[in-house]
Design goal:
8% strand, 60% helix, disordered C terminus, alpha+beta, 5 strands
Length: 423
């Protein structure tokens, strides 16, 4: 560590002046964009497609028992009858086939919608004579049609939603955070805090702003820039090396945004391909094409940030190990490393998208239509454009970051302390 503190070069005042002259306007633009595009208070009051009907409640419960034979359609659909206890109420329900196939068992926690027993269906009331409960009789002493004198499980008690994964996912997140802090120390902790703040920007600014009808491309670029300012300086400290990586990252974001907007329009990727886009298509002021561009920007942030900060660090280390080397020699050596970054991250991005769309790709592979032709249709086309545009932004950001880093690192030759901001 003592050797590093004495040999790594320090950026000159002139280099800092140039970098800050570029960085400060970008920071001001990001703040202005954040204020200008900030969603109105009405953005959080929009229609919720997942909202429950009056009298219904979303809760969790524990499976007490499961009986496949009690479901009359088990042979054809694979359903099963479940006895459930929510703590305040117990009852029965039919579990859907997908839950049975997953291996639901006694003791599992599941999330359900509890239906209000007092809530009745006007159509059912007209048939049953006024909404009698199970086992009740209609006027005249006859058994009401649709009633359940045997008290067998019905769908009216609970509606299955999904498994309750709060504990399992919470434990996994804790293990991940603990390992990051254990291995990376304080820098890892700062990175986790930066990640939390990045998600706060997306949840409190980006998503509501898009839903509020703000230009999605500008919202995406602004959110991406603000996130990068936060995570880079918080995780790596305020230094010339980090500032170099930030400038390269912002350049890559701009290229990605411009190309994403161009190819999304050219390829006409504004269709309704999924249930989610069908619901969002009815939101006033929301453009599906802009939403695709916004998604492309956010999806590319992680790998873009990774390669720029690593590339900047490589330039600094090369300059430290070869103090006699010229700028051209440092750039050439650093780009050899950069080419390896490009080669590895290109298929990293492609595999990430392929993993996220694996079920769709399986359906495409099972189709009689040629595989390559299917990739140009609908949701698959969005993944292709996202992969290629993000990769282009990455490929351009690497030499840009390397060039800036070489100019900065060779701007001064005095020694520095690793704790100083000049690194």
């Amino acid at each position: 560590m003592h050797y590093i503190a004495e040999t790594l070069p320090r950026a000159s005042r002139q280099a800092w002046s140039v970098m800050l002259g570029m960085l400060i306007p970008l920071a001001v633009l990001s703040v202005v964009g954040l204020v200008w595009l900030w969603p109105s208070s009405e953005a959080t009051d929009r229609w919720d497609p997942a909202a429950l009907a009056e009298g219904a409640e979303f809760t969790s419960g524990t499976v007490e028992s499961i009986d496949l034979r009690a479901c009359p359609d088990y042979e054809s659909t694979g359903c099963g009858a479940i006895t459930l206890d929510t703590g305040e109420r117990s009852g029965t329900m039919y579990a859907p086939p997908e839950a049975i196939k997953t291996g639901i068992a006694a003791g599992d926690r599941i999330k359900v919608i509890v239906m209000d027993a007092a809530q009745t269906d006007p159509v059912a009331d007209a048939i049953t004579g006024g909404g009698q409960g199970p086992g009740e009789q209609a006027p005249g002493g006859e058994q009401a049609p649709g009633s359940d004198p045997t008290n067998e499980p019905t769908a009216a008690d609970f509606v299955f939603v999904d498994f309750d994964r709060n504990i399992s996912l919470g434990v996994l997140a804790f293990v991940y955070a603990a390992l990051v802090i254990l291995v990376a120390g304080l820098k890892g902790l700062r990175a986790l805090i930066g990640l939390a703040l990045a998600y706060a920007v997306m949840v409190w600014f980006m998503l509501p702003a898009v839903m509020d009808g703000r230009p999605a491309v500008l919202v995406g670029i602004t959110a991406a820039a603000v996130i990068m300012f936060i995570v880079l300086y918080l995780a790596h400290g305020f230094s010339a090396r980090t500032t170099t990586a930030l400038l390269g990252t912002l350049f890559g974001i701009l290229i990605t945004g411009v190309l994403g907007a161009l190819w999304t329009t050219w390829s006409k990727l504004a269709g309704i391909y999924t249930e989610e886009t069908y619901i969002l298509a009815w939101t006033d002021g929301l453009s599906m094409a802009d939403l695709v561009v916004c998604a492309i920007l956010i999806a590319g942030l992680g790998v873009l940030n990774d390669v720029t900060i690593t590339q900047a660090a490589a330039v600094w280390e090369l300059a430290a190990s070869r103090p006699e080397a010229s700028r051209r020699e440092i750039f050439t050596s650093a780009m050899r490393i950069g080419r390896d970054h490009i080669a590895s991250t290109v298929y990293t991005i492609a595999f990430a998208y392929a993993g996220g769309a694996l079920t769709v790709l399986l359906l495409v592979a099972a189709s009689s239509r040629p595989f390559l032709e299917s990739l140009t249709l609908g949701e698959q086309a969005i993944s292709v454009v996202s992969t290629l545009v993000t990769s282009i932004g990455l490929v351009i950001a690497i030499p840009a970051t390397t060039l800036i880093a070489v100019l900065v690192v060779r701007s001064g030759t005095s020694a520095y302390s690793a704790a100083e901001p000049g690194i």
